[in-house]
Design brief:
By secondary structure, the protein is an alpha+beta fold. Helices cover 18% and strands 24% of the residues. The protein is built from 3 helices and 12 strands. Strands 1-8-10-11 form a 4-stranded antiparallel sheet. A 4-stranded mixed sheet has the order 2-3-4-9.
Length: 171
C-alpha cells in the first residue's frame, strides 16, 4: 500500500500555520520544525538582571505575530508524515528560521552553522531570549467624562451625523 507521506519531498505552500512554539508549527496536517533552529518551548523561563520572565511564551507569541496566519513555503513530503518534518520554510522571500534567530526568539542549532552568526548578533544586541524581560504594561486607566447637565439637556447643540445641530439626518 502507498502511504501518503511517501514520495520525494517538494516545495509546498502550507496555509494557516498554527504555532505551538517558536520554531515549530502545524499546517495542512504537516508538523514542521524549522531547520537550523532549536525551537523555544513555550514554558521556557529566562533570567535577566536577576529576574525570571516567561521568554518561551513571548517567543511563541512573537512568531505567531510575525506569521499572522500567513502561508509558509516549505519542502515537505507529498502527504503529512507521522513524524515531524525538519525543513527550512519561507514567508514570501523571508527565511522563517533566520527571522526567529536574528530576533533572538530561537537559538541556532549547533549542528547546523547557517544561523550561528545571527544568534551571536542577537546575543550581543540582547534581543529576545538574550535580553531583559519586556517592560510591564502600565495599568489601563479609563476616564469617563461626567455629563455637564444631569437634567437631560446633554446632546443639544452637539454635532455629528444624525444629531441635532449637525445639519445631517434632519437635525
Amino acid at each position: 500500500a502507498h502511504a501518503p507521506s511517501e514520495g520525494a519531498p517538494k516545495e509546498t505552500i502550507l496555509h494557516r500555520p498554527v504555532v505551538d512554539k517558536a520554531g515549530t508549527f502545524t499546517a495542512m496536517g504537516h508538523h514542521v520544525v524549522l531547520a537550523g533552529v532549536l525551537p523555544t518551548d513555550a514554558d521556557e523561563t529566562c533570567i535577566s538582571d536577576g529576574a525570571a520572565w516567561p521568554c518561551g511564551v513571548h517567543a511563541r507569541t512573537a512568531f505567531r505575530n510575525w506569521l499572522r496566519g500567513r502561508a509558509l513555503t516549505c519542502t515537505v513530503p507529498p502527504g503529512p508524515a507521522a513524524a515531524a518534518v525538519t525543513t527550512p520554510c519561507r514567508l514570501g522571500n523571508l527565511d522563517a528560521g533566520e527571522w526567529l534567530v536574528a530576533q533572538g526568539w530561537a537559538r541556532a542549532d549547533p549542528g547546523d552553522p547557517r544561523y550561528a552568526g545571527l544568534e551571536k548578533a542577537a546575543r550581543e544586541a540582547r534581543r529576545g531570549l538574550h535580553g531583559p524581560a519586556p517592560a510591564a504594561l502600565a495599568p489601563l486607566t479609563v476616564t469617563v467624562p461626567e455629563p455637564t447637565d444631569p437634567a437631560g439637556s446633554a446632546g443639544e447643540g452637539t454635532t455629528g451625523p444624525g444629531l441635532p445641530g449637525s445639519g445631517v439626518g434632519g437635525g
